[in-house]
Amino acid sequence: MATILEESGFDPNADLKIVGTNPVKHDGLDKVTGRAKFGADAFLPGMLVGKILRSPHAHAIIKSIDTSKAEALPGVKAVITRDDFPEKKQGTGPGDMTRNAMAREKALYDGHPVAAVAATSEKAAKKALKLIEVDYEVLPHVIDPVEAMQPDAPILHDYMRTKGAETDEDKPTNVTERMVTQLGDIDEGFEEADVIVEQSFDSKPMHQGYIEPQGCIADYSEDGQVELWCCTQAPFVYRDRLSAILDIDCNKINVQQSELGGGFGGKTGFYGEPIAILLSKKASRSVKIVLSRIEVFRGTGPVSGTSYTIKMGCKKDGTITAAQAEMVFQSGPYTGSMYFNAPNAMFTRYDLKNVDIVAYEVVSNRQKVNSFRAPCVPQIVFGVEGVIDEMAKKIEMDPLDFRLKNAAGDGHTTIYGDTWGPVGFIETIKKAKECEHYNTPVKEGEGRGISTGFWFNRGGETAASLNLAPDGTVTIAIGTADVAGSRISISMMAAEELGIPVDQVRVKMADTNSLGFNRVTAGSRTTFSVGVVIVDSARQCIAELRSRAAEIWDVPEDGVVFEEGKCRPASSNVGDFEPLSINDICKQTTMSHGAICGHAEMNVTGAGPGFAVNIVDTKVDEKTGRADVTRYTVIQDVGKAIHPQQVEGQIQGGAIQGVGWALNEEYIYGEDGRLQNAGFLDYRMPVASDVPMVDTIMVEVPNPAHPFGLRGVGEVPVVPTMAAVGNSINDAIGIRPTSLPMSPPKLLELIEQAKADGTYKG
User: To bridge 215 with a disulfide, which of 39, 573, 606, 680 should be the other Cys (CB 3.0-4.6 Å)?
Assistant: First the structure.
């Protein structure tokens, strides 16, 4: 379907009045005063408290579950187990989602749900959980992804065979898929190289670090209608997936979004929601489930752990001739790590002719992974940029010059087949070379590291509505979650297009019954995609405003133009009419001709990739192994910053999350396969004193596919971070860390080994 926006893109000569400024966020006051309603804030009269019983074993057959004592407890209104879920075939999407929501044949990780209760009080619900008797047959488990690939490893699923692997053996495996990505002739590339560097790396699973635990209320009515209130990045995806696993028609499930206290990809998969629905169905009462912090760690999805080897070669002039990688990604008990992002993104910012990548996804007895900013890419870039730094050192070339030598630019065709329009990678490197941080001498005892990063950015299915009220104010309904302040940016784009003040626009998050399908809020797609749809909707409204102004003046429609928020005669030949504002027109015609509104839904394309360069200074305490980041600068191509303060916050937040991932954050499992640090008392996230002020330099190379030139900014900031920190540590002490996180015990061990070898630089 053709749209009004179809032939329109960014006008670099446009005189923008609102876009590029920093108005106060419309939702800011509610959030700082506590009026904003988050997942746990929802309340329905007579609602029950839901609690989940979780497996204490990493791998165990569930022989039987006896809930009779719990059901007999006063105050308990419903108990559910695997038997309450519709049967879905193993190894399918619905089958895996069902079994992750509630264990069926086996418990596959510590924290896997095995039963749930709904009771009139939290005390009664907790007591009921203790009365449920589960007979487990404990099985050997495997956590490490490389160990899971070994022939003698415990097998999680008898049905699993490796997709993409050529083998005559029909035996179960823990390897879900093998992906091969190739370009050119890798052997020829290494033959051309004067320098070859090969290193192995690994990373541990880590938590997204959102502040708000998952929470929801489900109300299953007598006629089979489901109302679900929850904190989610994916309301429409939730609806469709819940329909698939619970055998409920999509039109009977209405998902209403609450405010979101952080997500970063971690709230794209559901956890308590299907359980709450079935408990509500059984109890004939609404049921509320709010996960504790420990449950968040034990029962939701962290970032994929990895083990991989990077091999690269270059000429003496700095030209990279070959890049090779073999990677293993840990997915938890079911497929879904999004590992395929890594082969497509890891080398993509560089113009390489010979590439060979093999990637494996492997199941293991830990929580099913979920997304995190730029899923599966940052932990791999840690190794790629480390190897690039080593090559630059060997040929004695400035690390930024080395990267600039190989940088891909406009017109580059990627390994995944896209050809880039205007992009800003080269510009970010040049800006980094010019910046004050890079040209300031490194302090005594510190090291400096740089790294670069890339993310595809995304578009996808998006729907929204824009409605003009009789007083000329504007209400926008969107179906995407606001995870990072997108409402103010959307308001600004609508206000810019309509020529009205931004405080006359309000954006509301609609439920799934009110709009067409919207893809998940993730992948740096939301502000870009909704912006395209909203501008199209605004232009529909403008067309109608012109039509009504023409009717009021009794002139042809082409005799009316819309400028600066008003309809005006196109020329003096049309007539001498006073301009009509949106308010004027709506006030005169709404009652007689109906409301003026615009609505658009489209599969938005043209997102345009994002790039960043990080410059990091770090000091390492040789006595403790503690690394402290002392200075941090991010240079990032943002296309066009709609709300510069908001963009800066996104960049700074990503960098800080990356510092945590670089230096401290990891899931630690005991020999029994149980998670040892399930909570912020034991899981070390960065606090304000751990990081300096993150300086930002925004490069604006407009994306021509967007009416205001923007690119997504949320994923890119975290991609280069760990590599930049690792390179700075290497520069400080002459040791190359190869394992994430680069925590004090790991660094101290490396320092002591280097001292023993006589290679310590510090």
Answer: 39
Is 383:306 a contact under the CB 8 Å cutoff?
A: no
What pLDDT is attached to residue 8? 56
Give yes or no for residue 592 having a pLDDT over 60. yes
CA-based Rg of the chain, rounded to a whole angstrom? 28
> Could you give the CA distance from residue 476 to residue 467 in angstroms, rounded to a whole number?
6
Percent composition of the chain: helix, strand, coil (DSSP 3-state, to 5): 30, 25, 45
pLDDT in tens, 532-562: 999 999 999 999 999 999 999 999 999 999 9
The helix (run of H) or strand (run of E) holding residue 474 is: strand 474-478
Rounded to 5 degrees, φ, ψ at 81 are -135, -165
Residue 15 CA to residue 9 CA, distance in Å, equals: 15
Using an 8 Å Cβ cutoff, are 84 and 278 in contact? yes
**What's the distance, CA 497 to chain centroid?**
29
Above 50 in pLDDT, residue 4?
Answer: no
Residue 26 has pLDDT above 70, yes or no: yes
Three-state SS annotation for 54-87: ECCCCCEEEEEEECHHHHHCCCEEEEECHHHCCC
Distance CA 389, CA 140 (A): 41
Q: Which domains does the chain have, with CATH numbers?
A: 28-36+459-604 (3.30.365.10), 40-140+208-299 (3.90.1170.50), 376-455+608-757 (3.30.365.10)
The token duo for 473 is 């104010």
CA angle 640, 4, 565 (to 5 degrees): 70
d(CA 413, CA 457): 16
| 6 pLDDT higher than 50 | no
What percentage of the chain carries pLDDT values higher than 70?
A: 99
Confidence band (pLDDT; 50, 70, 90) for 252?
Answer: very high
Can you name the residues that pair with 611 across neighbouring β-strands? 454, 637
Burial-class residue 518 by CB neighbours within 10 Å (0-12, 13-18, 19+): buried
Pair 497, 24: CB distance under 8 Å: no
What is the pLDDT, as a whole number, of residue 165? 85
Cα–Cα distance for residue pair 393/312, rounded to 1 Å: 14
C-alpha 757/C-alpha 98 separation (Å) is 53
Tally of CB atoms within 10 A around 318:
18
Tokens 């990072």 locate to 484
Mean pLDDT, all residues of the chain: 96
Residues 420 and 411 sit within 8 Å (Cβ to Cβ) = yes
In this structure, how many other beta carbons lie within 10 angstroms of the beta carbon of residue 45? 6
Q: Nearest to residue 608, comparing CAs of 452, 424, 430?
A: 424
Residue 485 has pLDDT above 90, yes or no: no
480: amino acid identity, one letter: T
Residue 736 identity: R
- β-sheet with 627-637: strand ranges across: 446-455, 610-620, 627-637, 694-699
DSSP state of 440: S
d(CA 201, CA 736): 10
Q: What is the pLDDT of residue 9?
A: 72
pTM: 0.96
